[in-house]
């Protein structure tokens, strides 16, 4: 698969940080996003996994990435206007970044989810709770730097599928059609991906219950010291936006 696949966690986190820092758009977003002062924010989902896949395929690191998802959680203001405040500020802050940035308050997703996807969901209890439900295990990854410049990773299903180029459905919330639509696009761009079919019960991640109270393995608050310890562990690795009225 790839040198970071089946490696120990500290090595994978170090590798992830190095790859993301080589993506000029992600590097800029991680540097600028704290200026928005969004509560409990992360940069995550496809832009993270697809950067890793681009490295593994030898592509330019922004190849095939449609957008960059900045998510946060503010249950005190679930209004459209409250979210739009950050969207407008982000539009100005990121005006020189050549990529589409999507800013979303996960605390209000349940208000519009049914209109987009045809079924209701429960309100997310936290931004991490929302990340737990993202469509694949490899894309359930979100990152940021904290106020002490520590690289923070939230990955409820670990990083091994990501570095193994394994696309595995996360059935916690999404339906088959959503998963298969994403897979159809991805395999045309990243041909080395290993796709786990939706109906493969042996390898798919099943929805445990109808709510969000489920224990996940996750990674948080990785210190610079731990990342530095991993150096040398991975041999061979060179280490303006228009907004819709309401949208995914």
What does this structure look like?
There is one protein chain. With 248 residues, this protein is of the alpha/beta class. It contains 9 helices and 7 strands, in the order ααβαβαβααββαβαβα. The strands form 2 sheets. The chain has a 5-stranded mixed sheet with strand order 3-2-1-4-5. It has a two-stranded parallel sheet with strand order 6-7. Mean pLDDT is 84; it is low at 207-248. The protein has one domain (9-229). Helices cover 35% and strands 10% of the residues.
- Overall pLDDT, averaged? 84
Beta-strand percent range: 5-15%
| Total DSSP E strands | 7
Number of domains: 1
Distance between the termini: 32 Å
* SSE order, one letter for each helix or strand: HHEHEHEHHEEHEHEH
Task: Describe the sheet with the most strands.
Answer: 5 strands, mixed
Strand order of the largest sheet: 3-2-1-4-5
Helicity, in percent? 25-40%
What would you call the structural class? alpha/beta
Shape: globular
Low-pLDDT parts are 207-248
The radius of gyration over CA amounts to 17 Å
Count of runs of 4 or more consecutive helical residues: 9
What keyword list fits this structure?
248 residues; five-stranded mixed beta sheet; 10% strand
